[in-house]
Amino acid sequence: MRHANEALIQHFYDALDRRDSAAMAACYADQARFADPVFGELDAPAVRAMWAMLCERASDLQVAVSDIEADDRRGSARWIASYTFTRTGRPVRNVIDAAFAFERGKIVSHNDRFDLWRWAGMALGLKGRLFGWLPSVHNAIRRDAGKGLQAYRRRHPEQ
Fold first, then answer.
1. DSSP letter (8 states) at residue 97
2. pLDDT tens digits for the chain (159 residues)?
3. Which of 64, 73, 118, 130 has its CA at 20 to 30 Å from residue 10's CA atom?
4. Which residues contact 47 (CB under 8 A, 6 or more apart)?
C-alpha cells in the first residue's frame, strides 16, 4: 500500500505536468521552504509564485517522476523536466533529485538538486557549456531568476 506522502508527491508532479500551479500550491504548508540551484531559498509565498510563473511560461513542459519514496516525515523523488527555455528557445531536459519533509500531510521543506552547469549548457548553448561552471555565471543565472520572480510577484500580488 502506498504511503499518503508518496501519493502527495505524485499528486504534486502530476499537477506540475498539467501546469496546475494552484494544485501544487495546495501541497505546501504555510511555513514551507524551498531551495534549488537557480532560485535559491524561498519561503512558501515565493515558492507558490515561482511555480505559478513557471507553469505560466512553460507551454511545452513535460514532467516525468520516478523513484518516489516517503514515510511520515521525509520523502524523495527523481523527476525530469523537459521544456523549451523561453529566453533562448533551446530545449532543456533537466534531471532533478527532490527531497521533502512533511508535517500534517503537507510539504514543509522541498529541496531540488541538479547540475547547474549541465542546465546552463542546455538552456544557454555554447556559452553555458563553456562557462556554465563559473561562479559568476551561476550568480548571473540566479540574479536573472530572482529578478524574474520579483517582477512576476509585482504583476501577480495574489500569488
1. E
2. 789 999 999 999 999 999 999 999 999 999 999 999 999 999 999 999 999 999 998 889 999 999 999 999 999 999 999 999 988 999 999 999 999 999 999 999 999 999 999 999 999 998 888 887 888 888 888 999 999 999 999 998 876
3. 118
4. 28, 32, 33, 34, 110
> What's this model's pTM, rounded to 2 decimal places?
0.91
Domain 4-155 coded CATH 3.10.450.50: yes
78 and 3 Cβ atoms separated by less than 8 Å = no
Alpha helices in the chain (DSSP H): 4-18, 21-25, 44-57, 116-124, 126-131, 135-155
Residue with cell 505546501: 28
